[in-house]
Design brief:
alpha/beta, Rossmann fold, 9-stranded mixed β-sheet, 9 strands, 32% helix
Length: 251
């Protein structure tokens, strides 16, 4: 039975549909919630993979949130050990930053449902292939990453070119949220901080529009998400290929 380490930043952004899938696969999950325990320093040697979830903070907030530096170092260590890493939204931005890529405020926020388009590399990728072609995915982000040097660019949207990448054999960054289900989307729409962000951004996607599109797209996304996540979980426990990372420009 393999142990998977999960970095969580706020209660509103859990593993979602990925949680029961991991448990059905027989893996044990260890959550580190940095909102509750910002000083946590988990022993990485005990774990066979790392998943870093989303959150309302950003890579540039490290001075106010020192746990982000803890996370960057943990991601770096897991990559050097050749262990699978999956970053979702903020997690993808942290992964990209460790790999030397800049993370910046995006020119237009993406909130709600957007068609995701696979690149040629994404159509044949061992993990992301179930999203081949064009598929609607759920988004909620104001920042975005550049594709790290040497990584494979896997997906884009019309408003954000850098949506997914693979670095090496088993490190993935997804800007979008495949882990969502209807209760979790409703939880975000009811969250005062998330509602305030939506209002502050002046985004032209209303709550009613998000709910209507969710009814149309959630079942299809969940089916494809299960296939993608199962592909990623297939990497857990495989023989590890160790990597040499770029210089620590993020320190």
């Amino acid at each position: 039975m393999s142990r998977i380490l999960v970095f969580q930043h706020v209660a509103a952004e859990p593993l979602g549909t990925l949680d029961p899938l991991i448990r059905r696969r027989g893996h044990r999950i260890r959550f580190v919630n940095f909102d509750r325990d910002p000083g946590a320093a988990p022993n990485l040697e005990r774990y066979r993979g790392l998943i870093v979830l989303g959150g309302p903070m950003n890579v540039e907030d490290r001075a106010a949130r020192p746990h982000l530096t803890t996370e960057l170092r943990a991601i770096e260590s897991m990559l050097e050990q050749g262990k699978p890493v999956l970053g979702i939204c903020l997690g993808a931005q942290l992964l990209a930053h460790v790999l030397g890529a800049p993370v910046r405020k995006h020119h237009v926020p993406e909130i709600g449902w957007y068609p995701l388009h696979s690149t040629d590399a994404g159509r044949t990728d061992p993990v992301l292939a179930p999203l081949a072609g064009s598929a609607p995915v759920f988004q909620w982000h104001r920042y975005s990453f550049e594709i790290p040097h040497g990584a494979h660019h896997l997906a884009r949207t019309q408003t954000c070119e850098q949506q997914a990448f693979r670095w090496g054999d088993n490190a993935y960054g997804f800007q979008f949220h495949l882990e969502m289900d209807v209760p979790l989307i409703e939880r975000w729409l009811a969250n005062p901080a998330y509602r305030a962000e939506l209002a502050e951004l002046g985004h032209d996607t209303s709550e009613a529009a998000i709910r209507a599109l969710t009814a149309q797209h959630i079942a299809g996304m969940q089916q494809r998400a299960d296939a993608v996540f199962n592909n990623f979980l297939d990497l857990i426990g495989r023989p590890q290929r160790r990597y040499t990372l770029p210089s620590r420009e993020w320190v």
